[in-house]
Recover the amino acids of this structure.
């Protein structure tokens, strides 16, 4: 899990770094504003959907794979409490990844001296806010991954969902339905990439539905499901 | 009869028309070591999972300490420790870390329980080894350590000797006996290894194809087990024929263990011996014996299969 988190944080930081290096090699000057935008876009478009889905799937399905689920569910706790604890523990896990990525990316920016624009604290605060918003919105999508992992009792389908989310999101981003699709809505809400199609009310409604429906499904399914693993 | 710790009534579990468990009744009294016997796939684990609320019965009820298992039965599970099928642990954590996680989840403040459990199960020396490096026998003991950590009144062990070598089996047996005697824990242990249960249990339940064929105390079972005369001879077919023809013995059968068994209380061993020797048959052994639990189990299961 720790390695997954480290790798998950390192990968987007490296990707952003390579994009910046590539730009400089093509005589494009380094700009902090562009560098920050790129960070949020890469995180929102590529890394968060795939990585968070994998991490959440792993958090939930691992109990079945290690057969520790029997012990968890035969304790004096309700099944809902067990599920809720998983969602709670997901917060520091996802927060750590996001924070580490942010710091690595930020540090990476200082490797490029002679930026055209000046690095300002307000720029940093704006960037940090976008990362927080992205984390919050991506966290709202975790119940789908959790539901998939619980249904198949494996993190592989959750990982598949993450990859599907990345690909489908890129396709939907080209259309006018950005705010109706949870992963593209997340990205547009956090980055405002397409301001003309950025309807916050539609976006947040989409997010709320996508968050609540899987949660209700998990609550109903997991409470009733027979647990055979182990 | 002691206080009922566990009562199972008419417990059924059906999967798409297949009856995995069919109308099982059980009763565990305080202080019992209950041997839950059955072949692989007989329905032992399914029954235990229903007892622990892991799967829902199709019908019937399970009462733990007088309280029905189901919604809101979480508090009563505090009095129960269990190891179901295979004890799962977080492989990257050490033995003591795994136990500590359980301690905290059970809301136990006293850290000395960790030490006590590890000492009882003989794992204190291995406490700082990762669970992934444990042998199956050690994992079984660690599972028991975790199950007894919170001081349960009832311990449910599902096939705790599965996959263990003879030494491992003996260690687990001694551990179970110690827990019952010293900690006064009521224990339910499921197994398909009959000889183990025979040495351990005070009460036995025999399940076959989801149906509870018999539930009785070990003493009752011993009385039920028939006596027989066991013969080892150089010509089994001829001996069998002679005993039938000359002495009119009807219940005489050749067993896989190489013994000719005569279930006829009236016959004297000397009479048989004389007859066989007179006919030129060499009798190498002649002993009065009693059916083991295994014999009884086989008879019961064959009877159950014939009925089914």
């Amino acid at each position: 899990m720790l390695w997954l988190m480290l790798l998950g944080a390192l990968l987007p930081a490296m990707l952003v770094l390579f994009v910046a290096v590539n730009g400089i090699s093509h005589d494009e000057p380094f700009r902090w504003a562009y560098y920050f935008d790129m960070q949020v876009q890469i995180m929102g478009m590529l890394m968060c959907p795939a990585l968070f889905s994998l991490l959440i799937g792993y958090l939930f399905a691992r109990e079945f794979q290690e057969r520790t689920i029997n012990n968890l569910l035969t304790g004096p706790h309700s099944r809902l409490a067990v599920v809720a604890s998983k969602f709670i523990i997901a917060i520091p896990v996802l927060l750590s990844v996001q924070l580490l990525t942010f710091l690595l990316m930020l540090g990476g920016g200082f490797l490029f001296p002679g930026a055209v624009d000046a690095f300002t604290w307000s720029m940093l605060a704006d960037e940090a806010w976008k990362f927080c918003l992205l984390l919050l919105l991506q966290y709202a999508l975790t119940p789908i991954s959790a539901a998939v992992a619980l249904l198949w009792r494996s993190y592989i389908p959750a990982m598949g969902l993450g990859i599907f989310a990345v690909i489908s999101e890129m396709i939907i981003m080209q259309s006018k339905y950005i705010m109706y699709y949870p992963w593209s809505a997340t990205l547009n809400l956090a980055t405002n990439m397409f301001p003309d199609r950025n309807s916050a009310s539609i976006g947040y409604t989409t997010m709320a539905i996508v968050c609540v429906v899987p949660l209700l499904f998990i609550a109903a399914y997991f409470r009733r499901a027979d647990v055979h693993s182990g | 009869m002691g206080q009922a710790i566990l009562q199972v009534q008419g417990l059924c579990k059906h999967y798409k028309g297949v009856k995995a468990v069919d109308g099982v009744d059980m009763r565990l009294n305080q202080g019992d070591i209950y041997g839950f016997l059955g072949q692989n796939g007989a329905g032992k684990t399914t029954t235990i999972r229903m007892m622990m609320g892991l799967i829902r019965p199709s019908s019937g009820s399970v009462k733990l300490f007088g309280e029905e298992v189901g919604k809101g039965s979480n508090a009563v599970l505090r009095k129960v420790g269990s190891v179901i099928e295979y004890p799962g642990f977080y492989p990257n954590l050490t033995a003591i870390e795994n136990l500590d996680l359980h301690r905290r989840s059970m809301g136990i403040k006293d850290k000395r329980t960790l030490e006590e459990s590890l000492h009882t199960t003989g794992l204190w020396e291995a406490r700082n080894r990762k669970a992934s490096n444990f042998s199956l026998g050690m994992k079984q003991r660690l599972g028991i350590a975790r199950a007894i950590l919170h001081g349960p009144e009832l311990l449910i062990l599902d096939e705790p000797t599965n996959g263990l070598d003879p030494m491992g089996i003996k260690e687990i047996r001694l551990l179970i006996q110690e827990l019952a005697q010293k900690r006064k824990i009521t224990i339910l242990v499921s197994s398909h290894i009959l000889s183990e249960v025979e040495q351990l249990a005070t009460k036995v339940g025999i399940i076959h194809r989801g149906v509870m064929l018999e539930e009785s105390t070990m003493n009752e079972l011993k009385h039920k087990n028939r006596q027989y005369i066991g013969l080892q001879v150089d010509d089994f077919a001829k001996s069998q024929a002679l005993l039938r023809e000359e002495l009119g013995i009807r219940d005489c059968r050749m067993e896989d263990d190489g013994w000719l068994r005569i279930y006829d209380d009236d016959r004297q061993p000397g009479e048989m011996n004389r007859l066989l020797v007179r006919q030129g048959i060499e009798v190498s052994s002649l002993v009065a014996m009693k059916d083991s639990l295994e014999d009884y189990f086989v008879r019961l299961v064959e009877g159950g299969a014939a009925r089914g």
